[in-house]
Amino acid sequence: MELSQLTIKAAREKLLAREISALELTQSCLEKIAASDKEIGAFLDVFEEQALSQAKQVDDKIKAKERIGPLAGIPLAIKDNILIEGEQCTAASQILANYRASYDATVIRKLKKEETVFLGKTNLDEFAMGSSTENSGFQTTRNPNDTSRVAGGSSGGSAAAVKADQCLGALGSDTGGSIRQPASLCGVVGMKPSYGAVSRHGLIAFASSFDQIGPLAKTVADAEIIFEAIKGKDSNDATSLTIPQEKKIKKPSEIRIGVPKEYFVEGMEKAVEKNVKQFIHKVEGSLASIEEISLPHTKYALASYVLISASEASANLARYDGTRYGLSDPKNEALTLKDLYFKTRGECFGEEVKRRIMIGSYALSSGYYDAYYLKAQKVRTLIRQDFEKAFQQVDFILAPTSPFLAFKIGEKTDNALSMYLADIFTVSINLAGLPSLSMPAGRANGLPVGIQIIGDRFQEKGIFKLASFLEQLTTDK
Ligand code: GLN
User: Which CATH number do you get for residue 175?
Assistant: First the structure.
């Protein structure tokens, strides 16, 4: 077994027992990246030297018998929309091709305190807008299970890096499914925390009322270790808070689980439906109760998400105007300031980003605001209320993560709508601000199928506990 194949938990035990060194562990990941990333394309930047020197420092501490944090010496990969001081942060956009971060994101600051090893920055869809990484301004990430297929998105680089054993775990961000959907398509664990559970200070903003940073990992236990390290209130993010003490966590046998009937829709891939239903059947055989529930406004979720997230994106991305960050009028043709804005944005933003800015600007414009943005916000409230009602009836909700298996590269690039459908089961959870974890449920046609556990706000602990239990039932580890 190569060291890069270890779980975080196992690696930590071996580090503390001094069976392995952090240096060897990091070297193993770097070798794996060197051997496989030409094909996979998960990384946009690799920090070879820094990673090795970070690892050595941890080894010295272990030798000196100093106390080390739970993630000390553990090599992780970071999505390239999270700032690490002094390093590039492109959000996979040409407009930020030359941008270097001037400070650490709060999650990075926390991980640095723990002496985590950062291997590099991973690929994504430009500004996290997409479901396949094909919208990256630099490269497409390939699915390690079948390299003719996408890794999902937008955190496709992080998911693929974990699956390919290039790292022990990774950070991603989830605005409408970007951690869970690639986790599902690659066959790893991905967790989107409750809105507010993790600070977004230093995350390049896409849609601020949705964005959350979360872990991708090989196992549920590993995802929990990363989540514990990054969570918590931060004075630099006014939306962050301390997770309240959870009510008593129930034993698996006392848990009531709901399966929403609206999450098995026309058009979903039959193999996914069959596999998820089989998994739910297995869960039913081993847990107290599974009941059908209804989330009646689900069918409006995608439209509401597209409108609100695009509206917020159009405002957030206004700052990339060629006068502050990143590239400016690359061909040096502009004669006026307005020209400079047009040339910078016209040439450096990709097609999908422009589409979102146009949809968002339209939805927010006077005359259309009530019909689109305001209405979408009202739908958001109804969706949140659907979940509130459901959580009076059940403790957790089980649902498919993605309506389809990893699709072929190029299959959906001509049709934005069919790409948006990838998010049909994930966006409601972001609209409601809830936590959700996607984990492997099995395989269909040789490809991984994911299932998500959705919990009420701040029920992260309960989700992890249930997920660890369900992990024993999965056939795809
Ligand atoms: N795929 C979704 C989108 O394109 C979600 C993206 C995300 O969560 N960042 O908007």
Answer: 3.90.1300.10
